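Working notes for the structural subgroup meeting. M.R. asked for a predicted model of this chain before we commit to crystallization trials. I am recording the input and output together here so anyone reviewing the notebook later can reproduce the run.

Input as submitted:
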Amino acid sequence: MKIIAFPYAGGNKYSYDFLKPYLKKKMVLEVFENPGRGKRVLEKSLDSIGAIIDDLSIRVIPSIRKNEPYIMYGHSMGALIAFLICKRIQEKRLKLPLKLIVSGKKAPHSPREQKISSYPSAQFWEELTSLGGIPKEVDNEIQLRDFFEPIIKADFRAIEEYSFKKSRQLDIPIDVLYGNEELKNKNDFLDWNRETTNKVTLYPFEGNHFFIHKHAQDIANHLIRGL
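Returned structure, recorded in token form:
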């Protein structure tokens, strides 16, 4: 049983390690990271969703085994990537996951209200801090900020310049998890029902954009139930 996951902007293959203590021993959590971070730190960061999907598809698709049940999960940027990887898998008529679980991400056709990738450094980090999820050691260390800033900005540029193109719906259930502090219009999350012919279920949590860190066991339970 496998969970294929994709990290949020600036994240890497270790971003979901906080979930591992709550998963069953037989479950494999396989996180695919974008170029420019983690074990791929020497590679150039990509700043377009299309290029990222092309890059990750050639790594993800060979990992899918015919007889192995799996689900896909992603938070924020990772949710959009997980969704588009599912689309790519469907286009190739390969085995789809049992379920797609997304968190902290509005429906892919919802326009972004704010574009921060072009902000000057101080304002950019102020916005990131307001979202939560920035480790204190990064927030307080200028050298670490200087290292991570171009990586995170490339991710945000990819998200902000992404243009949704309508295509054939998925045929798998989608669970949508979100923090109640970032809820402005419930339809932004409910509109995921446009992207599948199957069931969409919404799950609200207490917290901001990075509510997942405060609800690790609940998030893990969703992944377990998905399998």
